[in-house]
Amino acid sequence: QTVSVRQVLSGDVAAGTKVTVQGWVRTRRDSKAGFSFIHLNDGSCFANLQLVASKDLPNYEEGILKLTSGASLSCIGEVVESKGRGQSLEIQAESIEVLGLVEDPDTYPIQPKQHSFEFLRTVAHLRPRTNTFGAVTRVRHAAARAVHEFFDQHGYYWVNTPIITASDAEGAGEMFRVSTLDLANLPRNDKGEIDFHQDFFGRETFLTVSGQLNVEAFCLAMSKVYTFGPTFRAENSNTTRHLAEFWMVEPEVAFADLEDLAALAENFLKFVFARVLERCGEDMAFFAERIEPEAINRLEALVNSDFVQMDYAEAVRILQASGKKFEYAPEWGVDLQTEHERFLTEQHCKAPVVVKNYPTEIKAFYMRLNDGGETVAAMDVLAPGIGEIIGGSQREERLDVLSRRMSEHGLDPSTYQWFLDLRRYGTVPHAGFGLGFERLLNYITGLGNIRDVIPYPRTPGSAPF
Ligand code: 4AD
Ligand code: MG
């Protein structure tokens, strides 16, 4: 019976059972009494499983004494109550097959000590073997599952929107190019004819910045939908909050307005946090102990609190009245900076804040124009310690207004005819938001850098794993 470390340590397997366990060595300690204690991890849980190997095992000298941190093995043995401290169950090994030794233990990058996050980013292929990355990987999985679970429970369909696209969903010109129509530089075949196939069949295309426009089409048929996938931004921001490739969760709801959307965002975040607390207790305890003492408390508080809602205009008034010296002076018409967002959430409201109705000029073309035209029905959800984690809006559902706004933004109408069709044929009020999945994970884990919550971070100058 092959079992995971988690199955043994959680007591799923009764003491006295003979099992096979497989994994990677974290540490080996040899006692004078003729035993070696091997701590084994297989990723199934935070804790390691202790294997007790006697010197009487046939490969003790040749195999077991060569096991170092990072080596892999398969062990057959009996689950027994542990006499040692720190664990209740362990494995009395009957045989240990060494699967892979570590070539040169002294230069193995993941030593059993604390490494800096900066260093670990340079060995992104090995960092899943550390405590922190194991915990991040499990929490990321649990949060992603919770996202799907929430939407499934509330009647949403998951729609897979395209990665390669011709449209700039944010109208901000921050797209990575997939293919050009630069005819002079296209590859040619043996006959000298232009070979378009590596250039998306002769179309100018980009990596998507957001699945929103595509998911709106499904919203206006299926009512409640969401997309959850990778998105890309060609912004040259070398910060702890920006990635060139990140994952976004984007629900889109028909027959909904900004108030409905703010309520959805709050319920959604609370559900995901509650699930992670419920399913990842051990990992969250690690984050609270090693990374952010408040990691668990603040999630629990948030699950039980009410988010504060305010208009952008009020946020600016609060910032101006605060008497605080900001690097950028808060002023109506200028976007909130991270320092402003953090003041609102951490000092003024001491809670997540939903800021609504932003100035039209600083927001995207698709957001619904409010009466008077000075503001749009946009909202950002700001979280303490992070700033913006959700951005969304009620959408402009009126054909004439949307057409006008698109031409004001200089968007090529031919690329967006399909998007205007949604307003031509059976338009309805609808609204949606985008949650940066890695920003959510930064908030949950307390890890301060967005590069440390995604398996392979893509940033300016990052290693091309
Ligand atoms: O505010 P943004 O740009 O909104 C949109 O893309 C909308 N189309 C979403 C929608 O309404 N469906 O991005 C949404 C969220 C931000 O709040 C932030 O959490 C995250 O995506 N985000 C990034 N995360 C990591 N790295 C970046 N470069 C990010 N840019 C945005
Ligand atoms: Mg935004």
Automatic annotation (TrEMBL):
PROSITE patterns: AA_TRNA_LIGASE_II. Pfam families: tRNA-synt_2, tRNA_anti-codon. Coiled coil: none annotated. It is found in: Cytoplasm. The keyword Methyltransferase does not apply. It catalyses: tRNA(Asn) + L-asparagine + ATP = L-asparaginyl-tRNA(Asn) + AMP + diphosphate + H(+). GO terms for cellular component: cytoplasm. Keywords: Aminoacyl-tRNA synthetase, ATP-binding, Cytoplasm, Ligase, Nucleotide-binding, Protein biosynthesis. One of its GO terms (molecular function) is asparagine-tRNA ligase activity. Its EC number is 6.1.1.22. One of its GO terms (biological process) is asparaginyl-tRNA aminoacylation. Homodimer. Belongs to the class-II aminoacyl-tRNA synthetase family. This is Asparagine--tRNA ligase. It comes from Wenzhouxiangella marina. The lineage of its organism: Bacteria, Pseudomonadati, Pseudomonadota, Gammaproteobacteria, Chromatiales.
